[in-house]
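Run: sequence + D-xylitol-5-phosphate -> complex structure.
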Amino acid sequence: MNPVLVSASVLSADFLHLEEDVRKVIASGVDGLHLDVMDGHYVPNLSFGAPLVKALAKISTVPLDAHFMVTNPLEYVDLCRQCGVETMTIHPEVVYHFHSALSQIRQAGMKAGVALTPSTLPSVLEYVRDLVDFVIVMSVNPGFSGQKFIESAPAKIAAVRQMLGERVRIGVDGGVNPQTSLLCRQAGADFMIAATAIFGQEDYAQAIRSLRG
Ligand code: DX5
Ligand code: ZN
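>> structure
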């Protein structure tokens, strides 16, 4: 089993000292920053939007993955491109034309990510597989950090890996801790996204290492 990459979800960072906290997590060895943009419509929570994505892009020295939990993600393609966001991740349920949406992200020069909620079938990927760079299997219902890992996620990771092969990176988002990370790695995931299991710990470097396995 290969060690996995770890991305820190800033949703649980210290918002009163955000720059300091984000610089600290980067210095602690995280491989990427995961930005959860929420609109209070697609998910029952409001987080942050374009101004914060822009600000974090300015100070980040690691790649950014922007996870859009909004009803209109395509309105942010240009902004993400301008900021240098590496991967723009969307939920298939919110776009009328999924194939076209992924193409727009790719044409803007970014990697296209697809987030699957716990109830979303992996078959949604079947006819767009050539347009997908990154799949996030969500192991909680989107909206909040600090939720409990949903046990069906590893089986879905294995199904996605089987369907898409090795080219596509598979991340897990929600309730990731050292124990659930191991289950997900065994199922074929190669990217862990974590908020609480990093920002909720005293020693970020140690927390990141324990998620890598
Ligand atoms: C949930 C977000 C996650 C969240 C993860 O909708 O997509 O990225 O911040 O938080 P933890 O790691 O605490 O489950
Ligand atoms: Zn997320």
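>> summary
The CA atoms of residues 43 and 142 lie 6 Å apart. The longest strand covers residues 32-38.
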